[in-house]
Design goal:
Shape: globular
Number of domains: 2
CATH topology of the largest domain: Rossmann fold
Largest sheet: 8 strands, mixed
CATH class of the largest domain: Alpha Beta
Oligomer: single chain
Strand content: 5-15%
CATH architecture of the largest domain: 3-Layer(aba) Sandwich
Bound molecules: nicotinamide-adenine-dinucleotide
């Protein structure tokens, strides 16, 4: 196989991690007609991932968006296992394991012994350098960031991130893959937050500064951005959805990654994380969720 026709041969996709993102990636790949190998570290995690896919496809059938036959065929295309040797057949492996740099570096290094030489590798990391992860593999030119959005079956965007080493053929193959699984790709260079979170998270952080300064109430800040900018959700409600601990982590990645004080986290964000007010998942953030 030459690099230039790499796009045509992605037929079997491996997904490492059967969690929130991994099972979504496995689902959209299987629905697109690709053969899928989804792996995780325990039988429970694998079973949970498969169950989530089954539930998600059942909802599509109920809404008449998918036939029973198509659902069964998609499920039949997925092999879910704890045995990473099953990745040997894959043309593309997408790493979607827990966001931990040491863990991801080890997973990627271990792939060398398993993958066929021409296979491509992608990572769904939200915050780790694609260039650094690529360097841990035996094929940095055939490595790319594929930043899917949550929930994967519903969100249209796939942000592709080119590391310094990513070849044009790998980027072209990733574009083809994105379209094949029904996503609209955009491309960004490797940089903290890539393109979308680089713009979104400082905007949310600025909304928190505005609240902290007493510029407007939380309700008015969110109403202002929804009604004045046509955002479907206000920045503070979105922060509550993402989780304030995750927001603080991302701002700290920017602050350290760019060495630029413009990315400093709002003191109120730190204070709320210290208080355990993490947003929806803790019942309270900028808004109260205990009654819902
Ligand atoms: P998650 O915790 O839901 O799932 C992670 C899964 O990885 C777990 O099932 C875990 O058992 C598994 N895992 C851990 N070590 C493994 C190993 N060695 N081999 C195989 N599987 C292993 O996490 P998630 O939200 O799905 O996040 C996965 C990745 O996607 C992270 O890099 C995250 O930054 C990124 N991401 C998450 C979101 C989001 O909104 N959740 C959005 C974009 C990107």
């Amino acid at each position: 196989m030459t690099e230039s026709n790499a796009a045509a041969v992605v037929q079997t996709v491996g997904v490492i991690g059967a969690g929130t993102m991994g099972n979504g990636i496995a689902q959209v790949s299987a629905v697109a007609g690709l053969t899928v190998v989804m792996i995780d570290i325990s039988d429970e995690a694998v079973a949970r991932g498969l169950k989530t896919i089954g539930g998600s496809l059942d909802r599509l059938v109920k809404k008449d968006k998918m036939t029973v036959e198509a659902r069964d065929a998609a499920l039949a295309r997925i092999t879910a296992t704890t045995d990473k040797a099953a990745l040997a057949a894959c043309d593309l492996v997408i790493e979607a394991a827990t966001e931990n740099e040491a863990l991801k570096l080890k997973i990627l290094k271990d792939l060398t012994a398993v993958l066929k030489p021409e296979a491509m590798i992608a990572t769904n990391t939200s915050s780790i350098s694609i260039t650094k992860l690529a360097a841990a593999t035996d094929r940095p030119d055939r490595f790319i960031g594929m930043h899917f959005f949550n929930p994967v079956p519903l969100m249209a965007l796939l942000e592709l991130i080119r590391g310094l080493q990513t070849s044009d053929a790998t980027h072209a193959a990733a574009m083809e893959f994105a379209k094949r699984v029904g996503k609209a790709p955009i491309t960004a260079k490797n940089s903290p937050g890539f393109a979308v979170n680089r713009i979104l998270c400082p905007m949310i952080n600025e909304a928190i500064f505005a609240l902290q300064e007493g510029l407007a109430t939380a309700e008015d800040i969110d109403a202002g951005m929804k009604l004045g900018c046509n955002h479907p959700i206000g920045p503070l409600a979105l922060a509550d959805m993402i989780g304030l601990d995750t927001m603080l982590f991302i701002m700290d990645v920017f602050y350290q990654g760019f060495n630029d004080p413009k990315y400093r986290a709002a003191p109120l964000l730190k204070e709320m994380v210290d208080a355990g007010q993490l947003g929806r998942k803790s019942g309270k953030g900028f808004f109260d969720y205990t009654a819902k």
